[in-house]
Backbone:
């Protein structure tokens, strides 16, 4: 039987992101797979009155068990209320780097309020088709969807790439219009996941400190337009 995230006290990311843009602040998104991590995340965010995105990767979902994760998310909502004298904080439960429609659907049906479909390893057209399929199912259940355009070299969960492809601003408008995604992960050169910058990719500054390649904020600004 399908579970609605609303019954767990969770929110999707739509209003959360709208408020963040209006207020000029960022929203933390933390990956977790056990109770101790969740306690620390909710404790800190409740103390600072910060909305939070609880992220679960495909691997973490297998490790932690989807039923336990659902009740942990529900427990996080109640724990936040306890810390904040009943007020609580906005909490989203988000699938991080989902790579198939079936996985995204399963997460929607088990109480996630947001899902990411990462089709960036597919050709552009197939990425659009897959993302649109997820959006149509998720939106029918009030669940928000994050897509991805552009690839970072390395490994993110089970998504592997040998080379970096920066997001092309001209593709963003077509992708968003066609798929109807609520948010978009783009590639502007961050170093994370299993693949970190090597010393060869960095330059020495005047203090002899290794400085990584600059982030392509010009691409970000063009995409924002």
Residues:
């Amino acid at each position: 039987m399908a579970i609605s995230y609303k019954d767990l006290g969770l929110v999707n990311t739509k209003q959360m992101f709208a408020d963040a843009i209006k207020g000029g602040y960022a929203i933390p998104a933390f990956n977790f797979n056990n109770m101790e991590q969740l306690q620390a995340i909710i404790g800190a965010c409740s103390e600072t009155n910060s909305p939070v995105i609880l992220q679960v990767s495909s691997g973490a979902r297998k490790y932690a068990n989807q039923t336990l994760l659902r009740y942990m998310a529900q427990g996080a909502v109640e724990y936040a209320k306890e810390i904040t004298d009943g007020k609580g904080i906005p909490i989203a439960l988000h699938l991080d780097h989902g790579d198939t429609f079936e996985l995204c659907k399963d997460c929607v049906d088990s109480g996630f309020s947001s899902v990411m479909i990462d089709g960036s390893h597919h050709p552009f057209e197939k990425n659009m088709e897959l993302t649109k399929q997820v959006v149509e199912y998720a939106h029918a259940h009030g669940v928000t969807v994050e897509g991805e355009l552009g690839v970072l070299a390395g490994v993110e969960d089970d998504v592997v790439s040998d080379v970096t492809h920066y997001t092309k601003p001209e593709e963003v408008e077509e992708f968003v219009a066609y798929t109807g995604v609520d948010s978009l992960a783009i590639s502007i050169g961050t170093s994370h996941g299993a693949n970190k910058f090597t010393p060869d990719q960095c330059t020495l500054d005047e203090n002899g400190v290794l400085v990584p390649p600059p982030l392509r904020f010009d691409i970000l600004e063009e995409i924002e337009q």
Q: What stands out?
A: The chain has a mean pLDDT of 91.
